[in-house]
Fold:
Amino acid sequence: MKILVPVKRVCDPDHANKVKLSADGSAVTSDGLEWKPNPFDEYAVEAALRLNENAPKNEKLGETIVVSLGSADVAQTLRQALAMGADRGILVEANDAQLDSSVVARALKAIVDKEKPDLVLMGKQTVDGDSNAVGQMLAEQLGWPMATFAMTISTTDGGKTLTVGREVDTGVLTLKLTLPAVVTVDLRIVAPTAIKNGATPADHKYNEGARYASLKGIMQAKKKPIDQSKLADLGIDTATTASYAKFELPAARSGSTVFVETVDDLLAKLRNDAKAI
Amino acid sequence: MTDVLVVSELIDGGLRKNTLTAVTLAKQVAEGTGGAFDILAIGAGAKNAATELAKFGARKVFVAEIGGGYFAEKYAPTVADVAKKGSYGVVTACASTYGKDLLPRVAAKLAAANISDISAAKIDGGKVVYKRPMYAGNVFGWTSPTTAVACVGVRQSEFVGAVAGGGASAVEEVAVSTDAAAARVEFVGLESQKSARPELTEAATVVSGGRALKSGENFKLVLEPLVDAMGAAMGASRAAVDAGYVPGDLQVGQTGKVVAPKLYVAVGISGAIQHLAGMKGSKVIVAINKDKEAPIAQVADYFLVADLFKAVPEMAEKVKALKAQG
Ligand SMILES: Cc1cc2nc3c(=O)[nH]c(=O)nc-3n(C[C@H](O)[C@H](O)[C@H](O)COP(=O)(O)OP(=O)(O)OC[C@H]3O[C@@H](n4cnc5c(N)ncnc54)[C@H](O)[C@@H]3O)c2cc1C
Ligand SMILES: Nc1ncnc2c1ncn2[C@@H]1O[C@H](COP(=O)(O)O)[C@@H](O)[C@H]1O
Structure:
């Protein structure tokens, strides 16, 4: 299968509480924080690689292309995915302030029109903007079927369809999509048996999580091609659909933590002070 | 003047209460801008839901009865057509997994801005400005659309559901629209585990367990008695779900459910940033953890430093006794 995986770089999500605001609150500054691939996108890369390999035989079944929009530095993010095993990269240079969900969706549509993948596999949301919208918008613009919040994916009907288990509020909702399609992934997609591609034995167990790049992978990634262009070259409408007037930090929780040693003490405080039980 | 269209969420042929949080936003925007709001009851059971939804002061309640299980390709064309006909400035739904799936697809049809998961809205010079959490709830952004129409997802834990009043809105059936993408999706099924406990996103008390519980059996034997003694909903950390102790729909956090109960009890949960994103809006937070230094202390009001396997059964017994006394 030819799979396109959009990947965004975000500032280290485990330190999102260290994100600061500019003095006038007009911008978010992540100075001093490391850039990482958006975790859900990393999971999408892993899922694409699993779909595109006969695991025990270490045999490639299809092409995995990673694409990122952002500053020229996102080449680094793309190299990380190439080191995991993706085949080539596409870098669309853009200023982060020019991008919102609609612009990213339109840009990805232009790339899909050109590359004609069977599947766009991507994160369900970025963990900086927390928008959770690009996949759905892209699917609509393409007129393709979609499955969001994927926790399992199996190829069915000889690879013409994908059966996707979606992790929803009320349980697991299963859809069967006729390709080409857009699938956005949730955390559990990197569980050991979440992906079944028809070639890898169904009982094969992957390691939990996204794979680490091997040294060999890192060396190979240096030679893999990254096609570079600019947002303006795509010939799309680049108007954003929303603007941010200001940002603020959440109010600190009032009071400090009261430490207790016994259940009796806890219950007395919950009843008498907090009036919570 | 901004008119608002609320899109309902139905399940098992009935209305999900979370729809009413979107009604609250709709009322606020309509009142604040001198507009009106309508509700679209859509899905299997829409007719019945419309009768219920007619009690909230909407100008109109539209009905689109669509059977056979939800997927966005099947609902979005009708939502978009109703939205176009009524020239609404805002199309809103609860930002549940349903709303998050459906609204951006509708937004793309309408060339509208998609504003996800808002925690508040205000009217500023006739314009609606939305507040939304970003960076796992560590920053709030105030945003407004630059398009004529916006699709807005409402974070359930931050809005109080609208309350039914007198009177009844006019109910009107609308045509169901379709598009080609829907023919390429087959609804296979929805598997949900029924629980007699209150729903996680609506409960006044939530008791969540983490990796420290060590097994699904311990969730049952150790945690459940406390959950039930407190009349609470049960939640979990990602680590507990990943380990297979409990199903995924119990996960609280950035990728699970966002809850803001009156009382949240985190048992054997360290308090990773992604977990805090889903519960730090709770009124009172209790941590039960043997490690005083666990990051959950950043948000906990009360921290019982103890081994959960000793403390939780004792607490279950004592809460039961307290409740029996009244
Ligand atoms: C993209 C992404 C999204 C994520 N989304 C979520 C999310 O939505 N929700 C979520 O929860 N996590 C999420 N996570 C995972 C998160 O980072 C943590 O890994 C997870 O929350 C840890 O779960 P835990 O607290 O149960 O386990 P641990 O971190 O292992 O903590 C266990 C705690 O139990 C305590 N303990 C151990 N034994 C006992 C005992 N006998 N008695 C009392 N205390 C004891 C320990 O001191 C420790 O504090 C996400 C991660 C990523 C990368
Ligand atoms: N700048 C970007 N470059 C590449 N992919 C992106 C970019 N922004 C968003 N995406 C993709 O869209 C998904 C959803 O993002 P969002 O809707 O912004 O939360 C992400 O998980 C990525 O796969």
Notes: The longest strand of chain B covers residues 127-134. Residues 4-183 of chain B form a domain with the Rossmann fold fold (CATH 3.40.50.620). The pocket of adenosine monophosphate (ligand 2) is lined by residues A 6-8, 38, 40-41, 68-70, 99, 101, 104, 122-123, 125-126, 129, 131-135 (CB under 6 Å). The CA atoms of residues 270 and 293 of chain B lie 9 Å apart.
